[in-house]
Specification:
Elements: H1 11-21, H2 26-43, H3 52-64, H4 70-86, H5 111-119, H6 124-136, H7 140-144, E1 151-152, E2 157-160, E3 169-172, H8 175-190, H9 204-207
Antiparallel strand pairs: 1-2, 2-3
Helix pairs in contact: 2-4, 6-8
């Protein structure tokens, strides 16, 4: 992707600039660049020379390699950004369709199954964090980023910052989870670990900063 065009800087740099303009997450940017690199490797030439037929054959190649449907679809999303935004040639992708993904229901632990796992945690902090993850349906990364001010006991909700789509949202907070959070707050505050406006679950490095 380091070839140049008459209109300006190398394609890779131009694409990076457009992604920065849209404030895409670093992992998203890496995925988009990877998609264009795959196309370039397949074509054995600069990706901006691809034709509709090239793209159709490339998609067939990706589907036939036996990878998960998610991988060809992620590649398609990156290429769509490259041709639509970076090159301004959206017509090349007009007939490209994502692979249909099977609809599956995620396996969720029942309260009876989750309770002993949470109780097995070594301390109240970990028990509270696991309770939040299970009760509010949050990923570990989101739980780690919660701050004390994100707990809204009046509305019985947790404010989750910069969720999917870079949007803030609220997750439900059950009385049981709130009780555990309050127990952790009392202990953590007495130890000088949890402070107003600080992290809800500070790690060792955060605590010593």
């Amino acid at each position: 992707m380091d070839t140049t065009t008459r209109a300006g800087p190398p394609l890779r740099q131009r694409m990076l600039e457009y992604m920065r303009m849209r404030k895409l997450e670093p992992r998203t940017q890496e995925g988009y660049i990877r998609a264009v690199r795959r196309l370039s490797t397949y074509l054995q030439r600069s990706p901006d020379t691809a034709t509709v037929e090239d793209l159709r054959n490339f998609q067939l190649h990706r589907v036939d390699t036996g990878t998960s449907p998610i991988t060809p679809n992620a590649t398609l999303t990156g290429l769509k950004f490259f041709f639509d935004i970076t090159l301004g040639r959206g017509e090349l992708m007009a007939r490209m369709q994502p692979v249909k993904l099977p609809r599956t229901v995620p396996v969720a632990l029942s309260m009876k199954e989750a309770a002993p796992l949470i109780a097995a945690a070594r301390n109240i902090k970990h028990q509270a964090a696991l309770s939040v993850a299970y009760g509010a349906g949050l990923r570990a990364s989101k739980v780690c980023r919660l701050k004390v001010g994100d707990v809204d006991s009046q509305r019985m909700a947790l404010r989750v910052g910069q969720g999917k789509g870079a949007k803030d949202r609220y997750a439900m907070l059950s009385p049981v989870v709130l009780q555990r959070l309050r127990a952790w707050w009392r202990i953590g505050h007495a130890q000088g670990r949890t402070l107003p406006g600080g992290w809800l679950f500070p790690g060792w490095m955060r605590w010593n900063r």
